[in-house]
Design goal:
The protein is α+β, with helices and mostly antiparallel strands. It has two domains: about 1-60, Guanylate Kinase phosphate binding domain (2-Layer Sandwich), CATH 3.30.63; about 75-144, Rossmann fold (3-Layer(aba) Sandwich), CATH 3.40.50.300. Helices cover about 50% and strands about 15% of the residues. The chain has helices spanning about 15-20, 40-50, 60-70, 85-95, 100-105, 110-115, 130-140; strands at about 25-30, 35-40, 75-80, 120-125. The strands form two sheets. A two-stranded antiparallel ribbon has the order 1-2. A two-stranded parallel sheet has the order 3-4. The longest helix is centred in the C-terminal third of the chain and has 15 residues, at about 130-140. It is globular.
Length: about 140
């Protein structure tokens, strides 16, 4: 598996809302700070048609939306933290989000963990190397 990087498209709020209305997204989320995130259906379809795999790093709601659209063609992998305290520490150490954003994410943990059984696989992320190895194994077996 070759990872080619992160692709990000930027839209105005009005453009994004139009894409929602026109059902141009396979998933989307409006966060507490009024940030909008989503995945263009055309981007996914173009990549799949050209034989490329598409890997998402998204929240539970988005993953379930993708499963609803693509069914057995999609494998959902839930990355389970060892516990909430470890998750909090990891988020703080990453330093990619404000303390307010971290608090909002933590509020959703119970909801998200409650949806883990709706996923095809659950990978415990207690040791990064083990979790990466397990995810790679799942992806490689899924592609067969």
């Amino acid at each position: 598996m070759k990872l080619t990087g992160k692709i990000i498209f930027f839209f105005t709020k009005e453009e994004f809302l139009n894409k929602i209305s026109n059902k141009e997204l396979v998933e989307y989320e409006i966060l507490f700070n009024d940030d909008y995130y989503g995945t263009l259906k055309s981007f996914v379809e173009d990549n799949l048609k050209s034989g490329k795999d598409v890997i998402f790093d998204i929240d539970v709601k988005g993953a379930l939306s993708i499963k609803k659209i693509y069914g057995d063609k999609a494998a959902l992998i839930f990355i389970m933290p060892p516990d909430v305290e470890t998750l909090k520490e990891r988020l703080k150490k990453r330093a990619t989000e404000s303390s307010e954003q971290i608090s909002e994410r933590i509020k959703r943990v119970d909801l998200e963990i409650g949806k883990a059984n709706d996923f095809d696989y659950i990978v415990l992320n207690d040791k990064l190397e083990n979790a990466v190895s397990e995810v790679n194994r799942i992806i490689n077996n899924f592609k067969k």
